[in-house]
Design brief:
114 residues, single chain, mainly alpha
Amino acid sequence: MVKYFTVSLGLFANAAEVSPVQKVLQLLDELKQKVQSDVDAERKQFEDNAAFCEDETKDKNYAIKTAKRRIEELQAAVEEADGNIQEHESTVSEVSTQVAKKRTRTRRCQNCAT
């Protein structure tokens, strides 16, 4: 009977221990959980980065569109200013011609008076 009890305790002790196959399965389950948590963390980070990139793309596209519109406005202002400059140069040329003629007349009159 003692022998039966000892053998039973030996089997019970072995039952409490984990077999190598069970240990491998346990390690695989733990690894699967770790990989899944890593995948979840990477997915979250990817989604955050994707959202950031999308927001930045919208902001940059808006800035580009605004800058292009501003460039067009400034080009129109430059063209208008160029037109004004040409108009004023023409006016200055005409006035310079009139002043030269009047100086010539003034000199002739002064020469006649003397």
